[in-house]
Design brief:
The protein has about 325 residues and is of the alpha/beta class. The protein has 12 helices and 7 strands.
Length: about 325
């Protein structure tokens, strides 16, 4: 025991373990409330590590109730001397100019792509509309690839894909080689980008963290595919039976995410479409007659999704 205490690395690890465990316990009902907690199998410090992996840090979100006890002094703003042109002001002015330049550039890019500033309405299209499209998503999009019959469209989808890891894993096949999504999208320009993801992230992180990663992905699509129309697709719901019995994979959580995804659409370049309109029953959940596991469609039912997409064309 004495030898262990003399080892600085051991002492550091013990102290770090204790600190992370305390943070995990104190914030388990706060920033980590959407994580599954089971102290019998996983100590509380695992919450902190899972949160860091998802971009949620101990200081993220609102300060917990115990913060005031540790830090009774309110945070005071630092005021710049009156009458002085500070570097911060210059930086803010520079940032404003940069923002204006970016907005002008985006406007020019939109006009170049043939997209006016007027909101677009959906029109009926045929299967050829998808010839220059790429579909990006998880196992549900894999099913669309396997059974949807869209032979000329490209699919960059894999089982288990999530918004946190989609830019780092090499799951896209281009010319017989596995590459990252960014490499794949740099290699070819598309007319449409269809994006559906979110079911695998249920129970992992919180809604704000999910949307931050989701929004960054949409911005990345704009950057890599400057001429493409971008479709953000609602997360397909689960059956009412599963929703009512599952604390993680439930339609209440899916609806909360879909509402935030919907807000990303401007109906000029980014469009929100919701396949739940045609695959859900009167209960509001996925129609059990269309699914074999309460989550995924039967292979023979993917035509419903495709027919729905054909009603959402953009000129």
């Amino acid at each position: 025991m004495k030898k262990l205490l003399k080892c600085r690395v051991t002492i550091f690890c013990i102290v770090l373990w204790i600190l992370l465990s305390v943070v995990g316990y104190l914030r388990k009902d706060d920033i980590y409330k959407n994580y599954t907690v089971n102290p019998a199998r996983e100590p509380y410090f695992v919450l902190v590590l899972d949160g860091i992996r998802d971009g949620i840090y101990p200081w993220s979100g609102q300060k917990p109730d115990f913060w005031e006890e540790w830090n009774p002094m309110p945070e005071q703003p630092v005021l710049a001397p009156v009458g002085e042109n500070t570097e911060q002001s210059e930086e803010q002015e520079t940032e404003e100019l940069r923002t204006e330049a970016v907005q002008e550039s985006e406007t020019e890019s939109t006009e170049t792509a043939g997209l006016t500033a007027e909101p677009k309405e959906f029109v009926e299209v045929d299967e050829s509309y998808f010839d220059d499209a790429v579909f990006i998503g998880d196992s549900r999009t894999v099913g669309l690839h396997d059974y949807g019959g869209l032979k000329k469209a490209d699919f960059f989808a894999t089982v288990g894909m999530n918004v946190y890891d989609m830019w780092t894993e090499a799951f896209c096949e281009v010319d017989g080689k596995k590459v990252t999504l960014e490499e794949a999208l740099r290699a070819k320009q598309y007319g449409k980008v269809y994006f559906q993801i979110g079911i695998n992230e249920m129970g992992r992180g919180d809604l704000d963290g999910f949307m931050q990663a989701y929004s960054r992905s949409v911005e990345k699509f704009k950057e890599l595919q400057p001429d493409a129309v971008i479709y953000v697709q609602a997360i397909m719901k689960v059956t009412k039976e599963k929703s009512d019995s599952d604390a993680i994979f439930n339609n209440e959580g899916i609806e909360a995410r879909n509402e935030r995804i919907r807000q990303l659409a401007d109906n000029i370049r980014v469009f929100y479409i919701d396949v739940n309109e045609v695959v859900c029953d009167e209960s509001g959940g996925l129609n059990p007659e269309l699914t074999f596991d309460n989550l995924h469609l039967y292979g023979s039912k993917y035509y419903i999704w495709v027919d729905f997409l054909k009603t959402k064309g953009v000129k």
